[in-house]
Amino acid sequence: MAATPSASRKRILTYITDDSNRKTTFKKRKKSLVKKARELSVLCGVTVCAVVCSPFREIETEVFPDEGGVREAYARFKGMTQVEQTRRKYSQETITEERYEKVKSKALKVSTGNQEKEMTEMMYQYLSGQLMSLPAMNLVHLNDLAVVTQRHLERITEKLAALGKEGDSVLMPPPPPRAPASMDMGGGMRNDEGNGMYVNTNNRPEGPAC
C-alpha cells in the first residue's frame, strides 16, 4: 500500500501546547524509551541507564534499570577520564549545532548547484546568439561564469583527448568536393581538368570558321 503524503513527510518536532496531548505523548515516548534501553542492554551487553523525570504529578519518574543500576553506571562514568567522558557526549546544544551544520552544508550545495546551472545556461545562450551581451554582473558572478566556462572547456578537452583527436582538426570544416572533369559551371566558367582550376570560356578566341 502506497504511503500517504502526510505519512511520507517527516514529522516536525515542536512543543505540544495541549496538556492532554502532551501527557499522552509523554507516556508513550517514556515507555518506548525504556523498552529501547532494555533492548540495547540485553542485545549488546552494555551498561545502560535512564532517568525520566515526570512533569506530571500522577505519573511517576521512570528509572532504568533501577536506582542501584543508575548509581553504578554514574560511578563508572565519573571514573573515566575527561577525554573519555566527553568523547561521545551529546547535549541538546551539540545536537542542535550538528543539525545546523548539516542543514547549512546542504543549503550551500543546493545554492552552488543552482548558481552553476544559471551560469551554464547563460554561457550557452551567449554562444548560441540568444544573448547578445552579458548582463550587468558583479565580480563574484563574473568569476563564477569564468569558472564554469573553464570547467566546460576542460571537459571538452578531455573528451577530445579520449577520442585521440586534436581540437583544431576536429573543428576544421571538411574540404569541398572536387568538381568532375569538363564540368560546365555556367556563366562561361568550365573546369577542363577536374583539378579545381576553372577557365573563362567567354574570352577564349574563336577558331577558324568551318
Q: What does this entry show, briefly?
A:
With 210 residues, the protein is mostly helical. It is 55% helix and 7% strand.
Topology:
Layout: H1 5-8, H2 19-44, E1 50-52, E2 62-64, H3 67-78, H4 82-87, H5 92-128, H6 139-163, H7 167-171, E3 183-186, E4 189-191, E5 199-200
Helix pairs in contact: 5-6
Characterise this structure.
Residues 179-200 have low confidence and may be disordered. Among the domains are: 18-89, SRF-like; 93-164, no CATH class. The longest helix has 37 residues, at 92-128. It has helices at residues 5-8, 19-44, 67-78, 82-87, 92-128, 139-163, 167-171; strands spanning 50-52, 62-64, 183-186, 189-191, 199-200. A hairpin with a 7-residue loop joins β4 and β5. α5 packs across α6 (139-163). The strands form 2 sheets. A 3-stranded antiparallel sheet has the order 3-4-5, with no helix packed on it. Strands 1-2 form a two-stranded antiparallel ribbon. The radius of gyration is 40 Å and the shape is elongated. The chain is 55% helix and 7% strand. It is mainly alpha-helical. The protein has 7 helices and 5 strands.
List keywords for this structure.
two-stranded antiparallel ribbon; 210 residues; mainly alpha; SRF-like; single chain; three-stranded antiparallel sheet
